[in-house]
Amino acid sequence: MTPEEASEEILEQAALYALGALEGTDRESFEKIVAEGCATCQAVKDFQDIAGLLGSSVAPMAPPASLRATLLQRIASEQKPEGQQSIGEIDVSSEGEGFTIVRSTDDLWRDVEPGIRVKPLSFDKVNGRMTVLARMAPHSRYTAHRHTSPEEFYILEGSLFCGGYLLYPGDYHRAEAGTVHHETSTEDGCLMLMIFSPNNELLESLA
What we know:
By secondary structure, this protein is an alpha+beta fold. It has 2 domains: 3-57, no CATH class; 82-206, Sandwich (Jelly Rolls), CATH 2.60.120. It is 27% helix and 27% strand. It has 4 helices and 13 strands. The strands form 3 sheets. The protein has a 6-stranded antiparallel beta sheet with strand order 1-2-3-12-6-9, with no helix packed on it. A hairpin with a 2-residue loop joins strand 7 and strand 8 (165-167). Helix 1 (8-18) packs parallel to helix 3 and helix 2 (24-35) crosses helix 3 (39-57).
């Protein structure tokens, strides 16, 4: 059989064979046609064989350690319930030239995790750090994370357990880049002013 004699059905089978999608009796029939001398079919089969060899000839490479965390964070953000955002998705806009005004009456609160809401105030594009008001409901906790830049917060209401310390209104906490907050939780709820990087590395799923 010459390439000109290959029917449309045979060409379709050849395409499926090349994709590895031809199975069972259809695969056996196609390989029988190859054996009978179909040059087009033989070329497709040869191509698939070579492609398989190329794949097995490449030395395996370990992905960067940060890849899994990045993927898990992206998956988590895509699975947020309706109306809930990841912190990195929240926009902060300025009003006027060089000034930002956020009113106490501005309805900017966004859910970022169950029981946790933030109200964005400003975003430092140069240093990649965000200023927000954060409110945690009683018995809520925030995912363990590693800081990509310094994180600071000042407790305004309630109490917060963070970095191994129980903090109260008027208390200030700063965590340097590279440090880890294994547990951030509150029993009675809290309100705090935070300055942090929205690109912190989430760690809970890597334990």
